[in-house]
Amino acid sequence: MQENQDYSLTPEEVAQQLQITRNTVYELVKRGELPAFRIGRKLRFDQHDVDMYKQTGKISENASLKNPVQPVAKNIAAAYAGMEKRQELVICGQDIILDILARHLERNIGGLKVWRNQIGSFDGLMALYHNSADMAAVHLWDGDSGKYNLAFVRHLLPGIPVVLVHLAMRMQGFYVKAGNPKNIKDWEDLLRPEVRFINREKGSGTRILLDEKFRSLGYNRLQIQGYEQEEFSHLAVASAVARGEADVGLGNQKAAMQVREIEFIPLQSERYDLVVKQEDCHTAWYKAVLQIITSSEFVDELKGLGDYALNETGRIIKL
Fold first, then answer.
1. pLDDT for 26-49, tens place per residue?
2. How far apart are CA 169 and CA 223, in angstroms?
3. How far is the C-alpha of 99 from the C-alpha of 93, rounded, in Å?
4. Which residues of 73-99 are buried (b: 16+ CB within 10 A; e: fewer)?
5. DSSP 300
6. Which end of the chain is more exposed for a tag (fewer CB within 10 A), N or C?
């Protein structure tokens, strides 16, 4: 821990490097875009994580320049004109795909504000049920059926007809230190007493995958060393493993590529779907969402990020 104290950055120093306000730094941490850790009650940052955030931002800007959205914007604006209009939308979920969708919506529809609620899949569905969100992205694996999302959506939105719009397939797996010194390969390795785990927060799709997998395999999740230790994003989990605070964490492949000295052990592919109530399918904003998700501009931008399988992007399932 002394090493972190010598070389870590304060929020003020990060704000100065990124040329943003300190409050924006806290927002980036909350959204899971910038890893952070605590020394006592103080928030601190690794210089490498800040440098990686800078590089990621530059890549996103370049992707936007290479894939202009003017043709899509023209079509969406025409569809939106003269129809009932929403001035604000709320999208729940934590993947950068949703940030890109929000940006396209705001850019293509003048006057629309899209709010991003950075919460896990379970909480996103609850927000949709309580009418505090318009859309929720989910990746919830059911151990009984072996399928993603369908069972959870039907049980957490009882009696409410919905549509699932497929966004992408992602790979879930273990984050371990480079070289995998503890030789961690599968779920039962988490039960070894010398293996320290770091978990995701309750309600996240990753946490539910772990719990459902252990239930279906007949393992006791409470025997995992570090099960109660939580982080609130894939990046934060990977960063904690890189710093030696844990031997292994669970998350998606993209975060592993953004953190130095991390190796990724793939476990299973997961569906990432956008959930919308059927009663909203007649609205102009929903039609705009579909136009964007199925556009070549949107798909090309996701391809530029890498690590997403996009063969079924835009496919709709009604429940």
1. 778 877 778 888 776 678 888 888
2. 30
3. 9
4. beebeeebeeeeebeebbbbbbbbbbb
5. H
6. N
Strands 197-200 and 162-177: unpaired
Burial classification of residue 6, based on how many CB atoms lie within 10 Å of its CB (0-12 exposed, 13-18 middle, 19 or more buried): exposed
Hunting for tokens 């396209």 — which residue is that?
104
In 3-state terms the chain splits into helix, strand, coil percentages (rounded to 5) of: 45, 20, 35
SS3 289: helix
CB 18 within 8 Å of CB 53: yes
When pLDDT is averaged across residues 120-146 and rounded to a whole number, the result is 97
| CA 120/CA 139 separation, integer angstroms | 9
Burial of residue 179, with CB atoms counted within 10 A of its CB: 0-12 exposed, 13-18 middle, 19 or more buried: exposed
For residue 58, what pLDDT is reported? 41
> Which CA distances in Å does 127 have to 130, 157, 199, 203, 299?
5, 10, 23, 12, 27
User: What tokens appear for 155 in the block?
Assistant: 């049980």
Q: pLDDT per residue over 242-297, tens digit each?
A: 999 999 999 999 999 989 999 999 999 999 999 999 999 999 999 999 999 999 99
Buried b (16+ CB within 10 A) or exposed e, 108-146: bbeebebebbbbbbbbbbbbbeeeebbbbbbbbbbbeee
DSSP symbol at 191? G
Domains defined along the chain, listed by start: 1-60 (1.10.1660.10), 68-167+274-318 (3.40.190.10)
Residue in the structure block whose two tokens are 């129809």 = 83
pTM of the model: 0.77
| DSSP structural state of residue 173 | E
**Rounded Cα–Cα distance for residues 319 and 314 (Å):** 16
CA atoms of 60 and 33, how far apart (whole Å): 13
